[in-house]
Amino acid sequence: xxxxxxxxxxxxxxxxxxxxxxxxxxxxxxxxxxxxxxxxxxxxxxxxxxxxxxxxxxxxxxxxxxxxxxxxxxxxxxxxxxxxxxxxxxxxxxxxxxxxxxxxxxxxxxxxxxxxxxxxxxxxxxxxxxxxxxxxxxxxxxxxxxxxxxxxxxxxxxxxxxxxxxxxxxxxxxxxxxxxxxxxxxxxxxxxxxxxxxxxxxxxxxxxxxxxxxxxxxxxxxxxxxxxxxxxxxx
Length: 235
Prior knowledge:
Blueprint: H1 2-49, E1 54-55, E2 71-78, E3 84-91, E4 94-105, E5 110-119, E6 132-140, E7 158-159, H2 164-171, E8 176-183, H3 206-231
Parallel strand pairs: 1-2, 3-7, 5-8
Antiparallel strand pairs: 2-4, 2-6, 3-4, 4-5, 6-8
Helix pairs in contact: 1-3
Subcellular location: Cell membrane; Membrane
Transmembrane segments: 12-33, 207-227
Main location: membrane
């Protein structure tokens, strides 16, 4: 009877340990998946950034998925009455926002331009951008969004994730193109916005993270084995 009670006692530690090992192995495997994803992304960036900038008329022949990170040059007039603030962006450790402004093209279409970072101490007021501008940058389909991303506040023109299709639908911009451009060159000598600087040195610590999770799973297994041996009096 004592032996049976001892086996029942060991069921909970076994269940908890097994669940913990499965969780840790899953986290490690997820990091390996992210490692391959990051490597493929870096390869894609290298390939597409090596190409000369496309003209806006040429990109219409591409599939939408093939436009991501392609360099592009466009010319148009800013419609800065429709400027949006992409909140929660940092630059050198300082918090601010990215200024998103539609650009009116000669063919009547509009495209969103991520003009770069602005500190909160520099509020943006419409009416500053007059005349035609030539913009050079690269194409993005949308920004990142997850379950922690706040809802966009379109009435206040403050957003936390940039989705051109969603913006077109909300503001009834039927001519808005389904991607946006991240500006990489300044338009004038103004200190802000600070345009994006492209770098192929993306953070890639996924292998270290994967090794950490796998080592923790191994250590948990070793601790469990030592615990079982101690309970059976063989340690």
